[in-house]
Every structure is written in structure tokens, then in C-alpha cells.
Amino acid sequence: MDFELSPEQKLILETVRRFVREEIVPLEADLDPDASELPPHHRERLVAMTKELGFYGLDIPEEYGGPGIDLVTRTLMAFEMAQHRAGLYAPCYGVFGGAGLAQLYEADDDQKERYLYPVLRGEKRGFFALTEPSGGSDPARAIRTTAVRDGDDWILDGEKTFISGADKADFGIVFARTDPELGRKGITCFLVDTDMPGFRVRRIVHTLRSSHYAAELEFNGVRVPGRNVLGEVNQGFAIANDRLSRNRIPYAAGCVGVALKAQEMAIAYAKTRKTFGDYLSTRQAVQWMIVDNEIDLRTARALTLEAAARADSGKPFRTEAAICKLVASEGASRVVDRAMQIHGGYGMTKDLPLERWYRELRIRRVGEGPNEIQRLIVARDVIGGSFH
Amino acid sequence: MTGVRLAKPWLDLDDAAIAALPGQLGVYEIGDAKGGTLELGFAGGRSRFGLRSAIAEAAAKHLAASRFRYEVTMQYWSRFEELLAVYVADHGELPPGNADRGVQRVGRLGVDRVAATGE
Fold first, then answer.
1. Quick check: A33 contacting B, CB < 8 Å?
2. Which of A127, A220, A309, A329 is the most buried if burial means most Cβ atoms within 10 Å?
3. Cα separation values, A258 from A338, A357, B107, Å
4. Is A213 helix (H, G, I), strand (E, B) or coil?
5. How far apart are CA A386 and CA A376, in angstroms?
6. Nearest alpha carbon to residue B112 among B86, B77, B92, B74
7. Which one-letter DSSP state was computed for residue B109?
């Protein structure tokens, strides 16, 4: 597979790299080390810049006003956009805009008017609620939130957990069981407004990732109109599944991005820090850590780009997405761990971004499907058949 | 599981109490003598002496400050966001010391109001 960059890609990447290093990184000197948001005046200024560059709303399809960037280029950009302290979970603090929620592009015209377009205009915010206290790795079986038809409406009861952004959202994409006998074919997707009676954000779930937190939700007899069913009744799992595979590629790219930066920092430090009269970079123990980092990085980078290229080509990419998510999250964790070791005591401090990446990368081995599930997906695809 | 409210004892605000504070990271609440909250805040990774310096600096901004309470936590950012959201759920507005943040930037939590005083 040839990943020689085109002149256009080189220009895009150089622009993004300069943006991150000249506009984002300097601001972090004044932010709390765990911050995931910029002060509003900086955010507005930088959003204006990304719009001027034509890079705003990178993941929005071209027919909805997005810049129409292919996934390989988008992945290369994600490598760059993650290279700062908050970069793993808040690349460039969101000033490149989001795509909204990809499922909304499958909505009917009425739903697009009420949800998709307001999201794209920045007037509404949504959340994606699949995982429940009963489990997230096997959502088709774990979903216990129920939706029972009542006339033209549906009544939702249940709980969701580890849901990002719900406490500041206007609506959510919520998966509920509508037929208990049908397993994964008995799940339906609903658009739930957060001001509907019976909906409640119960608490914030405190994790290793202090900002950009998740929340626990409660649905207590929430009455949802029938026109808020997204897609077909009992076909919700396919909507969830499509999102899960596709999201694993940018998820992997973020891991690669912070690992690239950690390696750059490790090399720079090893070339300036002396012990026993010579630089760390001359010590074989340190050289091997840097070499192992490079192997992890190149492997993860290549596999992530391979998955992106496969998705761009229109071929099935579930296996490739699972592999890149698995390899990038585990490889980046090792890279950051070694970079901390090379930095010694400073590597543990909040003066450097390494400790934040170390904490947040631990989550990446569980988020978007634990790595054991990624192995299961690969095994299922490689060996074939079901494991039941 | 951490409760959503800051269920720690109030301490009188004086130099000795401040000096005895840990240098760890965490969240705090500055109150007045009437039982009101003046400011919620956190001692983050850039604080010079953790809660000790953060509470001293916050208290100095409020003439009416007479008491405080705190909670040591490494998850100071999400805990701070949670405390702001609980306060807004109880009072419909932010404490005076946090007003410049704007209610629209605070999350919405559905909390039980029975313990709204936080005592």
C-alpha cells in the first residue's frame, strides 16, 4: 500500500501542524493541565481561523457543507491534531468543529430539520447513549432499557452509563429494547430531548480522565413521540454497529498522534539530558526504548492508514478498524510509558503532558470496545463463524 | 461511589486552618457566615501548594468569606464541574465567585433537592 503524500496532502498537513504548534500549544501554558476547553474568546478566534482555512466541520459529508476530505487525509490530520496536551480527547479543543452525530445523516427529513441541521449550525448538542450498567461490550444482549409502545408514542425506562456530553446536551440518540425476544434485532434507536419529563442526568462518572467526563443517565417513563424513532423499529443495532466500526479509525489516529509527540519529546530530552558525563541518547538502554517506540509507532500508523484507505475504497473494513484500534491503543500506551521513563521524575509531573496521556490512554484500551472485543471481532472475521 | 454533593465538614476560615491544609489537589467551597456559598473552585495542576494556596487565594477575593470545606481528589476537574452543576440545580444560578463562567456552560444534573443545603 502506497502512502506517499500528494502535494495537496502535504500542504494540508503542514498547515495543521503549524496551527497546532503556533496556535494551540502556546495557549496550554496558561490552562489547567487537565483542561479540555478553551476560554470562549480564544475558541471563537480559532474557529474563525479554521473556517477561513476551509477546515471547519471536517467530518461533515460534503453534501451537508463539509470540506469533503477523504478518510486517509482525515486520519493524517488527526495524527497532527492530537499532538498537544489535551489532544487525545479534545484534539485542538474542538475548533475544527465536529460532525455532529453520524447517525443523524440517516434521519428522515423532519428529524434532520429538528436535530441534524441545528447541530451543524452549532445550535444544538447531542449525545450517543448505548452502554448500560449491565454492560457495553455486548450491547445487543446487555441493553435493558425498554421502550414500550403507547399509542403513537413510546415509553422509555432504564439507565445508561459512561455517556459523554449528556449533561450539556439538548438531545440524545438512545438505544432501547423494543422486543425482548429478538436479541440484537429487538433494539430501536430513539431521539430523546433532554427536557422530556422523566429524563435525568443522575451523576458524573469520575474516571482517570478528569475533564471531558462521562455521565450516568436515568429514563423514568420518558414519553417519546413515534416520529422520534431514528431508522426502523427493531433495526437500531445496525445503526449503533455502523458507528462503532467507523469510529475506531479516528480513535486509533488520536492514539498515534499523542504517541508521535511523546516520541519526539523523548528523543529531544535524551539528546539534552546528561548522566555520568554523557547524553541519555548515547545509552543503549535508552536507545532501545526509543527504537521500541518507533516500531510501535510505525506499526500503529501504518495499520490505521490501512484501515482508513480500506474504508475510503468502499470495501469492508471492520477487521482493519478493530486491528488498528487495538494496536494503536496498546502501542501508544507503551510509547508514552517509555517516554515517561526516559524523562525520569519530570515525566511523572503535570509540568509535562505525558502523565495526562498515560492516564487517558489507559481508557483507550477499553473505550470504543475493549481490546478483547477487538480481538474477538478479528477472530470472528479471520476464522469465520460465530462462537456460540 | 462519590456522592454528588460536597459532604465535608465546614471549617472556620483563619490562618491556622489554611496553614494546616494539605498541598494536594482537590475541590473546595468558600462560604459566608449566613450559610451562603461564595465560590466553588479547585486546586489544579498549576496551583503552587495545592488546596492550601488555592483556598487562600480564593478566600482573599471575598470579604464575606468566613468558612470553607474541601475534598482531596485527583479528579478535580470533573468533580468541580459536578459541584457547579449541583449548585445550579439547587439555586438556578452560579455562586457569585463563579458567575463569570455563565450558567449555559455548566452541565445539568437532576439531583435530589432534599439535601440542597449540603449540610
1. yes
2. A329
3. 13, 7, 28
4. coil
5. 10
6. B86
7. -
DSSP state of A90: S
Answer yes or no: are the C-beta atoms of A74 and A250 closer than 8 Å.
yes
Q: What is the pLDDT of residues A232-274, one digit of tens each?
A: 999 998 887 777 788 899 999 999 999 999 999 999 999 999 9
Classified as helix, coil or strand, A136 is coil
Give the H/E segment covering residue B84: helix B76-91
For residue A189, how many C-alpha atoms fall within 13 Å in the half-sphere facing its CB? 26
The whole-number average pLDDT for the span A371-375 is 95
Partner residue opposite B110 with nearest CB, options A33, A200, A211? A200
B11-114 CATH, one of 3.30.70, 1.10.10, 3.40.1440, 1.10.150: 3.40.1440
Record: contact A33-B4, CB cut-off 8 A = no
Whether A80 is catalytic is no
Q: Are A91 and A253 in contact (CB under 8 A)?
A: no
A180-195 b/e with 16+ CB inside 10 Å = b?
Answer: eeeebebbbbbbbbbe
Q: Shortest CA distance to A167 belongs to which of A206, A133, A194?
A: A194
Kindly determine whether residue A201 and residue B77, on different chains, have CB atoms separated by under 8 Å. no
Residue A117 lies in a domain: no
Is there a domain that residue A148 lies in?
yes
Is the model's pLDDT at A210 over the cut of 90? no
**Measured distance CA(A109)–CA(A117) in Å, rounded:** 10
Residue A213 belongs to what domain range? Answer: 126-230
By three-state DSSP, how is residue A327 classified?
Answer: helix
* pLDDT for B2 beyond 60: no
* A47-87 residue pLDDT tens: 999 999 999 988 888 888 888 899 999 999 999 999 999 99
Determine, yes or no, domain membership for A318: yes
Residue A166 belongs to domain with CATH number? 2.40.110.10
Question: For the whole model, what pTM was predicted?
Answer: 0.91
What are the boundaries of each domain within chain B? 11-114
| Helical (H) or strand (E) element with A157 | strand A153-164
Q: Is A35 in the B-facing interface, judged by CB distances under 8 Å?
A: yes
- A381 burial (CB, 10 Å; 0-12 / 13-18 / 19+) is middle
Q: Would you state the cell numbers that stand for residue A149, as one nine-digit string?
A: 409502545
Sort strands A214-225 and A229-230 into parallel, antiparallel or unpaired. unpaired
> How far is it, in rounded angstroms, from Cα B12 to Cα B14?
6
